[in-house]
Amino acid sequence: MDQDIDTVQRVDPTFPCSLLISLPLPTLRLATSAKRALEVDTELSPLVRRSFSVVPRTGPLSDGGMVELRTFYEATTNRMLRVAVNGFMESLGVVLGVMEELDVDVMAESAY
To answer: Is 58 exposed, middle or buried (0-12, 13-18, 19+ CB in 10 A)?
Structure first.
């Protein structure tokens, strides 16, 4: 799996606004597929940085075998962060929709 984003030291004062998005997924295969699909679209603005990692899900709410796709955003302003995350959420919706349609058995098993 990738390096845990939480362990990376962020010290760049030119990118003071940040957000960590954690998306639990039922299998490593789905998390890795989502990561590969999402990282193809690079950030268009040099005022925004984005990085991905896939990590095991831990803690009191973790289910056996669950993993998290983590996306870490850094931006120069809150507005730039909001615009970048809005675009990411649209892309994430498309990726999850495709997974649901093409991998019905896996996504159906994890439904609450």
So the answer is: exposed
Please tell me whether residue 39 adopts helix, strand or coil conformation. helix
Amino acid occupying residue 90:
E
Starting at the edge strand that comes first in sequence, how are the strands of the sheet with 48-56 ordered? 17-25, 67-75, 48-56
Measured CA to CA in angstroms, residue 88 lies from 24, 31, 73 at distances of: 16, 16, 10
User: So what's the pLDDT on residue 63?
Assistant: 57
pTM value is 0.78
- Average pLDDT in the 3-7 region? 49
- Tell me the C-alpha distance between 5 and 43, whole Å: 18
